[in-house]
# Entry
Amino acid sequence: ALLERAPGHARAEMRVVDTLMARDPAAAAERLDRLIADAARPSDRQALQSWRALASHRCGDTRAALDFWLQRNAAEAPSQLQRPAAAPAPAQWPEPAAPAPDAPAATFMVGLPGALPERVARLLAPVVPHFRSDRFWTRPPADGFQDLGAWPRIASGEVAPGAVIDSWRAALPGRGIQGPVIDWLPWWDNVYAAAMRAALPGARLLVVLRDPRDMLVDWLAFGAQPPFAAESPQAAADWLAGALGQLATVHEQALVAHDLLRVDDTIDDPVSMAAQLGDTLGIRLPEPPAGYFGPRRQSTGIWRSYADLLAGPIATMAPVARRFGYPD
# Structure
């Protein structure tokens, strides 16, 4: 009805495309071809081409979908963020300090590329006043959790783990935080686990997680937040497997108190994800409206459609998938 009144209305067109994606992917592809031809702005054309690649996937033309994703990623890589190198694990983890009985609750949320932590953030930001996503803004807080250059200095002992927490506490008032906080981190390294054990033992880590192989394909198809470069599937897989391996170590060794928020079955279901997230955090979240996450992304298990085309990168992800309990 809206398209009858305003032909070409972008959000209305995407609602139609989203429905066709599930019901008739070939018709979605045809509609997207028309929209791409009519698009005036390069940014609109690029976004539509990404959905056209997904339509190719839904039509079973995985080669065409992957070819587009790889060409786009290679072209965009020079202007995107470089993936941070992991710091070496400490020779010995600090003994956990005793938590202060009156310390405000602190939760750090992290989701690596392809886990879609931004969808969790969309559920929290409007209704949880102490949730913070300002690390993704143009002027992020200047603390140890934002300083990639601090990782090797913490690992070597040049910077004490407690100094990271001191800088974090000092920045909280400027972020409008006087009590509890849920702090969304753009990245993770296990030097943060050392800092939390040494000086913030009462904090929890919330890890947004999917099957690592699905995460890889989602990253290649849609990019990530923050926009880390994925110039090749193997380079992306090597880094993602290593970063997830650090989180697997947190889980296996219980380095810090943590929860794994497995969103495999709720990634496109905002109502179910809100209930799942509320249960994990011990809060009650309002039920979001249908379509709150926008058009559907990729179904769970999508990696199987690319197991041959991405044989090497998928094999790289397999060991860490096993560590998190996902079946081969």
In short: The chain has a mean pLDDT of 94.
